[in-house]
Amino acid sequence: MNMNFSIDPEQVKGFLAEDEGESLYRYALETTQKAPCLEVGSYCGKSTVYLATACRANFSVLYALDHHRGSEEHQKGEEYHDPDLFDQETNNMDSFKEFRKTIDQAGLQETVIPIVTSSTIASKRWATPLSMVFIDGGHSREAAMGDYRSWAGHIVQDGILAIHDLFPDPEKGGQAPYEIWKLALASGLFKELEIVNTLGFLRRL
Ligand code: MG
What's this model's pTM, rounded to 2 decimal places? Predict the structure, then answer.
């Protein structure tokens, strides 16, 4: 697949496997002519580059939502803490600077619309139909449920809901993303398309 990246997305910090990134690109290319795309949990912009490069090809846009204060597992003392993303001055995680660098290097300034706040606040008065939603935000039950409830209803017919970090085996990872995956299927509003590595794709019926 000729994906026309301005930078190698694999060099961007993040927790997305290459096959997962390529499948995000593929579905975004297929769906985003109709309406914009939204991702929840941009971090340093790895998934953003895959999604937005496809959006750019369709003259569409990507809303990149992240408070940039890191998820639970990114905080100081936690498993995925990155000291390079810690702002000593404010004593907070801050991935926005790195995110912005990625978007600039990738030449995606006119495709990516950063939304720097929580998912709940961003969704409060949201009224724009979305062709594709990618959920990769907080992994607590509360955060994952909030993301699902906030955004799944805005997906257009035939649009895509993608959920990252699906671990059907609880020994392999947290269950919150898998729970919202099951909730989406049980709702009758979505049908399963495929699971690539730990990234699941659903089609809005
Ligand atoms: Mg993830």
Answer: 0.95
* 73 alpha carbon – ligand 1 mean position (Å): 11
Instruction: For residue 147, give its domain range.
Output: 15-204
Identify the DSSP state of 9.
G
Give residues with Cβ within 8 angstroms of 152, minimum separation 6: 133, 161, 184, 187, 189, 190
Among 68, 74, 139, 154, the active-site one is 139
Domain with 111 in it: what CATH number? 3.40.50.150
Gap from CA of 99 to ligand 1 centroid (Å): 16
Domain count, the chain: 1
Please report the pLDDT score of residue 204 as a whole number.
98
